[in-house]
Structures are given as C-alpha cells and as structure tokens.
Amino acid sequence: MAPLHRQPSGALIMHRPLIPQIKVAVIYGSTRQGRLCTKVAGWTIAQIEGDGPFCVESVDPGAHDLAEQKERLGRADAFIVVTPEYNRSFPAPLKALIDATGAEWRGKPVAFVSYGGVSGGLRAVEQLRLVFAELHAATIRDGVCFANAWDQFDETGRLRDADRAERAMATMLGQLHWWASALRTARNTVPYGQFAA
Ligand SMILES: Cc1cc2nc3c(=O)[nH]c(=O)nc-3n(C[C@H](O)[C@H](O)[C@H](O)COP(=O)(O)O)c2cc1C
C-alpha cells in the first residue's frame, strides 16, 4: 500500500489516489481522576489530525454521555482505542462502553495505543482483541505502546523521545487506513448487518 509521509509541518500525507477522509474515533480507555490517558490520547489525536488522510473525533466516557458516545462511534470509519493496563487487563469503564454499544463497531477496524508498566499495556490489548472479535470488528496488527508510560511524557504531554513512537504510529495508521478504506467500500456495497448474529 502507499506509505504515509510526515510533512515538515507535522501533517501526515498519504501518496495515493484521492480517497475521502477516513473518520477516526479516538477512544479514551481510562476515566480515572488524574488519568495519564489525557496525555496519551492528546498525543494520539495530535498525530493524526490536520490535513492528512484522516479526520478525528474523540470518544471519552469521562466527558461524553452514552448517547453522544454512540453517535460518535456510529459515524466513525475506524477506531483507535487508547488503553492503559489495569490488573493485567483493560479498564472497566472501557468494557462498560463496549458492552453498552454493538452495531457501531461492526465491519470496522480497531487499532490500539496502549500504556502501562513493563508490559506497555499489551496484555490489555491482547484481551481486547478477543472482545472486538465478538463485535465483528477487525483488529489491526501493529500498534503503539508505552512501557513505564509515566516516564515518557513530560508535564505538558510532550513525549521525551518521540521518534520511536512516531514511527510506530505511522505504521499503525498505514494499516488502519488500508482496512478502513477497504471496509468502508465493502459496507457501502453490502451492508454488514445481515451477517451479524
Ligand atoms: C487499578 C490499577 C491497576 C493497574 N494494573 C496494572 C497492571 O496490571 N499492569 C501494568 O503495567 N500497569 C498497571 N497499572 C498502572 C497503570 O497502567 C498506569 O497507572 C496508567 O497510567 C493508568 O492509566 P490512567 O492513568 O490513564 O488511568 C495499574 C493501575 C491501576 C490504577
């Protein structure tokens, strides 16, 4: 597939025929007071917004009511779940949001930005892959993960060493864009609902 390139301005550009922008919902996995999630999701959104191939909307269980969250998920072509690891798994508020929704995820891709201690949140991500299989969503192979995440962001939410994370993000976004474009075309050709149990 065509690669993503970053302009000097920071915007992501994908060199390929013009395709309508992919709408990405960035989902906040933590609602904890003082959550690091604000910084990790803020960085994620800053990476993908601009004049690039994506437009972004946040879905924050700590800020939006359920009706608003459903609406935002429903109009998205793709998702990025920003999740910490809690007790080797994903946080309860994230699962509550997933369990309160359903059709909004169907036939769409889900990518992950994870964070935590030594595992970088990857145990939460691996468990979420099983959850999203039940929702007829396709999870993306490559993600971005932050081990010992509290050391990686400064007080303003900037990454102390941005290179590795930006490369991982570009890889993930390339895959997410491919799946989101393909699945949007497929959903528009044959609605997925008839295949969902
Ligand atoms: C209840 C709880 C359980 C946690 N369990 C784990 C864990 O199993 N593995 C890990 O790497 N980090 C664990 N952590 C550390 C969190 O991943 C880290 O504090 C992270 O910043 C939490 O995200 P938040 O600040 O956005 O809520 C735990 C934190 C909390 C609050």
Would you kindly provide a written description of the structure presented here, covering whatever features stand out?
The protein has 197 residues and is an alpha/beta fold. It has a single domain, classed as Rossmann fold (3-Layer(aba) Sandwich), CATH 3.40.50. Helix content is 36%, strand content 20%. It contains five helices and eight strands. The protein has helices at residues 37-48, 66-75, 92-99, 122-134, 162-189; strands spanning 4-6, 12-14, 22-28, 54-59, 78-84, 109-116, 138-139, 144-147. The strands form two sheets. Strands 3, 4, 5, 6, 7 and 8 form a six-stranded parallel β-sheet that branches. Strands 1-2 form a two-stranded antiparallel ribbon. Strand 3, helix 1 (37-48) and strand 4 form a beta-alpha-beta unit. The protein is globular, with a radius of gyration of 16 Å. It starts with a strand and ends in an 8-residue tail after the last helix. The mean pLDDT is 93. Flavin mononucleotide (FMN) binds next to loops.
